[in-house]
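P.,

For your records, the input lines for the assembly:
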Amino acid sequence: MALIQQPRLELPENVVVGRLDALANWCRKNSLWPMPFATACCGIELMATGASKHDLARFGAEVFRFSPRQCDLMIVAGRVVMKMLPVLQRIWQQMHEPKWCISMGACASTGGVFDTYAVVQGIDRFIPVDMYVPGCPPRPEQLIQAIIDLQDKIQREGTISGREFDTAGRQLRKRALVEHAGVLSTDASRNPVLQRELAAAAESAVPRT
Amino acid sequence: MPFTPPPVDDVLARLCGRFGSLESSVFRGQTRVIVPAEASFDVLSFLKETGFDLLVDVTCVDYLEYRGARHRYGLVYLLASTATSQRLTVRVFVDDPRPAVRSVVPLWGAANWLEREVWDLFGIRFEGHPDLRRLVMPEEFTAHPLRKDYPLQGRGERHNFPVITRDHS
Amino acid sequence: MSIAPAEFGTTSAGPEAGVRSEDYLWTLNFGPQHPATHTTLRLVLKLDGERVVDAMPEMGYLHSGFEKIGEHLTFNQYVTVTDRMNYISPMANNVAWHHAVEALLGIQLTPRCTYIRTIIAELARISDHLLCNGAVGLDTGAFTFFLYGFYQREVIYDIFETLCGARFTNSYTRVGGASQDFTPLVIEKIRTFLRTFPKTLDDMERLLTRNRIFVDRTKGVGVLSREEAIDRGATGPVARASGVTRDLRKDEPYLAYADLDFKICCASAGDCYARYLVRMQEMRESLRIVAQALDNLPAGPVDVGIDQRVARPTKQQVYSTIEGTISHFELSMSNRGFEVPCEESYAAIEAPNGELGFYIVGDGGESAYRARCRPPSVLHFSIFPQLIRGHTLSDVVAVLGSLNIIAAELDR
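Structure tokens returned:
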């Protein structure tokens, strides 16, 4: 089967040989410790997911820890507003690698029904997100599915050295407000800070080849 | 049948006897009385002595786009009596450039945060307030978002944050 | 927010300059992301050892512009936003919003609709109190109690899902009616709930009400006097636990409450334990209300008639009568809609948390010119420093839990 002839190994019982990456992924995916960043309605569904009827413990991710130092999966449940976003970013930065983020619900993913002055229109503009859960709020089953999907993703893509997190070589500034010089992705016409940023971006723009 | 609150005619009569004739109206059983801004504190303090011991709410309406409005801001004091279940709405109108009214925190502790909220969202100053800071918006926010000339989507403040990518975190 | 040293009374002078007791105080930042705040609030505590000398509450971490968005959505659309206001009991918010809208428009509901709204508002009260008391239990170390409560919440979710298709954010009411009528299945599920829930409630009371640890942690903690409760605008269970016998269901009977027999639950101690007891007792009263309302549920339509021009006519009316067709057409056209007076009115209901009212300004258009929500949580949260002074750090969570502060309602 193997193209390269393997040297014959004498293995004692209960020893399995595997790729180190796969082994690490297997460990990581089955011991997700979520950090519940529950701000609003989705937080109640997050509680329901962990409570008796839906019982997240069946999927190996029930150890909710409220300290970011102990967690590797952040579940952002609920809308994030201007005053809260710095807190969210700080908590994300306090989490240890490897870490993942689930954006639970319409508000966290896109701002949802709250297209207002105070609500951040999707946390993925400001922090990296691995999994989006639709719904307002999502049913507990949807969140469980998202966690299972995330486990799949970790198993498929993960590496022991965390190469999958090294995005710098693979993409440009991912969720920048200004993706191409001169083309606005948001209405910056009345925001002096954005306008300064735009002007700076236009100056330093290098034409792509 | 919908419940009609107990009438407040006697209170109104005493109020007018004390402060001169005040404009009042009734809509769906709710009595509103319009008070000039200078007299608002005295009227509210009189009403508190009369028995309106519960300050239900302090809020404001920006009449910038309202048809036929004579003033820019209309403050609303909703009063209730825990003993008689009477309710009374006191309206105070103020205008730019310096909308201000005397704080009622000395009368009701409940007014403390409610007035801070009005200051935050409408920019009405409450003179004599012990701690007039923003309540819900960040301290560094400059606008008063519930004013009618402030757009619903804001002026881009919500996009104004640093971006953290995978490489930075 | 930065705390200036002067605010906490510290001095830069050395010990020889005379040390004040405040110099030993320790500042602890509690929240906005803390497990016991349940939602997003923040406290800056001034501690002397474990004793709380002072607390500075800070809010706004969930301010999402509800009142601003209320000026841009129609009266029926805005009900979806009220769901997300007090998300522990969305049905009560739906009822409160449309109660206020109907007060402004001057609409008289059908008897069946008043009973249906009464039933769902009381079910929402049960589910709110279950979560609130469950959270108090959770914070004081009684995790099992919380699970008991949450399981029963799931039953109520199930009833609401059968009723309107959404288990959590229901958006059930409409101007002049409701989106769905009660089906026999819903009634059967509510009856099953009425049968089974008292047993769980008994179990829950046996778990916690006389539990030594729980009583020690809550009794005498966070005492709110009657005078202070009125002065600070407290309403609902928080005020009733302090001896204020004010309940809008009795004082200003709305919906079907005037027809029903129920008691107002009050306590005089004003501490966390009293608030817990009031909530437990209110659940039993709510059960009685639901049972009576269900037994006397009037027949007839849920929505008001098409002559009032607010509720959508049924398909039958649209296809077989000219009035129905016209009414359907007018309600669908963006420039017709309701006849809204250029007036302002305030109407409130007794929500699970306290007096939840809306001050609505109409300007003739089909959305409110101003939709002010009178949130009970703001006033309750502003009392917090008075309640916690002199108690220990571990009491903070018990007091916070018993005030039942919901951040989305707090900040809107």
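Two observations worth noting. The interface with chain A takes residues 32-35, 38-40, 60-65, 68-69, 80-81, 83-84, 87-88, 131, 146-147, 150-151, 153-154, 157, 167-169, 407-408, 411 of chain C (CB under 8 Å). Residues 1-16 of chain C have pLDDT under 50 and may be disordered.

Regards
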